[in-house]
Amino acid sequence: MALVLDSLIKGEEREKLINEIKNEVEKLKGKVEKTDDWGKKSLAFRMKKQNEGYFVVLNLEIAEKEISLISRKLRLNDNILRFLLIRR
Fold first, then answer.
1. Residue 25 is part of a domain; what is its CATH number?
2. How far apart are the first and last CA of the chain?
3. For residue 86, what pLDDT band results from cuts at 50, 70 and 90?
4. Cα 18 from chain centroid?
């Protein structure tokens, strides 16, 4: 899963948000294999009036039926500009 987070949120809040996502995956009997923090980068186009975003990549192992629940929670969070779930 690739996430683009709001660049204006502070480091502690960002860590809290990432940990909430990890906890949600674990609640759904999945696991986070790897977290890759890419840092703040310029965006190719504006998203929600932002020119920069904080990029994070999570490698997940989760059941296919649980993906829709994760997607819904990510979509409802205002601090997440975009996300992309990729099946390996």
1. 3.30.70.60
2. 10
3. confident
4. 7
Taking the complete model, does pTM exceed 0.85, yes or no?
yes
Domain that holds residue 32: 2-84
Q: Domain count of the chain?
A: 1
The pLDDT tens digits for 16-53 are 999 999 999 999 999 999 999 999 999 999 988 889 99
What gap in Å lies between CA 62 and CA 6, rounded to an integer? 25
Quote the CA–CA distance of 54 and 37 in Å, as a whole number. 8
The secondary structure of the chain, three-state, reads CEEEEECCCCHHHHHHHHHHHHHHHHHCCCEEEEEEEEEEEEEEEEECCEEEEEEEEEEEECCHHHHHHHHHHHHHCCCEEEEECCCC
The CA distances from residue 13 to 8, 62, 63, in Å, are 10, 25, 28
pLDDT of 64: 87
